[in-house]
Specification:
alpha/beta
Amino acid sequence: MTVAGVDGCKAGWVAVIRDDAGTRAQVFGSFDALLAAIPDDAVVAVDMPIGLPDFTTKGGRGPEMLVRPLLGQRQSSVFSIPSRAAVHAEAAEFTDLEAWYAAHRRSSEVAMRTSEPPRGVSIQAFGIFSKIREIDALMISRPELRERVIESHPEVAFWRLNGGQAMRLPKKIKGRVNPDGMAERKTLLARVGHGRGFLDQPAPRGAAADDFLDACAMMLIAERHRRGETMSFPSPPGRDINGIPVAIWV
């Protein structure tokens, strides 16, 4: 029985996969390549928004508004996802920073027109739009994935794995990995389902250390989901215009 926890990374997607042979970490260039490498019944938990709104209100989607109060000082890690139109507004590859920032501005303009009160797109959110589009396209074209590929969120996962207590320390400070925050999360993951040696290995090439740890947390959520032990925010999940479930599972 295979489960996978997945996070976006510089080289594509970093997956922590557990099956009868053990647990391994691997980087894939596309989400489709990841799905092709695991059985058709594998459960996948991914740190990426699934299910997009046509119009947003203050606080973003329902799942984001529901989980923020759980996280205390860590709630800023949950940022609002704008409308599908804003996410899909700029799908080209960018050859330089000037073009990238121009595309960000255009996406923000679309987001402003599809939100109330009008709200633009954060730089952090825009940076993952290509990955959101990748999963969105798969969920639209392959409806069978919707029951076994679920959205989760690392800090909400750590909250759940820690018995309903948010992590005390930030994972990053001013964009740099915080060693103490990483150590806090490793200690928790070692207590609830990962070997310490596995956690202490270098991240796979193409993934950062925090991406790898987040994928480790996602894998434990996927494992719990297969056993029917997860909860969703909201419960039951909503649905977007394409029938895709909209919820954060932990």
